[in-house]
Amino acid sequence: MDKENKPKRSYHFQVAEVVENKVKDVFNFNFGGHHDLAEIVDKAVAVGNITEKHARQLVCGVRLLHHVMKKYPENEAFKTFAPKFKEFKDALKAQANNK
User: Fold this and answer.
1) Is the sign of the CA dihedral 19, 24, 26, 29 positive or negative?
2) At a CB cut-off of 8 Å and minimum separation 6, what does 17 contact?
3) What is the pLDDT of residues 35-91, one digit of tens each?
4) Beta partners for 15?
């Protein structure tokens, strides 16, 4: 199934700071796309060299960064970083697909 035919998914991110056992909301936002974040986390964990907690952090970070980079393709910092970022994503995908 190509990505145009994949169902659109929506996620809600909430960031809170915990100080002296008190939770303070910092910010929250919605994020969408065709990727199943839970499935990607499962694949990352199945590779066997990352904990579930860190796989969740990695998957969210990579997906969010990729999204922002696509929104601002003319940003010089993103232009410079884009080829290395693609190499990194491709290496992660290859590692997951080899298991």
Assistant:
1) positive
2) 23, 24, 26
3) 999 999 999 898 878 999 999 999 999 999 999 999 999 999 999 999 999 999 999
4) 27
For residues 17 and 24, what is the distance between their CA atoms, to the nearest angstrom? 5
- Report CA dihedral (87, 36, 47, 59) to the nearest 10 degrees: 60
DSSP 8-state secondary structure symbol assigned to residue 5: G
The alpha carbon torsion through 87, 95, 48, 85 (nearest 10 deg) reads 10
Model pTM above 0.90: no
Provide the phi-psi class of 33: left if phi over 0, else alpha when psi is between -120 and 50, else beta: left
DSSP H or E stretch at residue 29: strand 22-33
Residues with Cβ within 8 Å of 8's Cβ and at least 6 positions away in sequence, in order, are 32, 33, 34
Residue type, 98: N
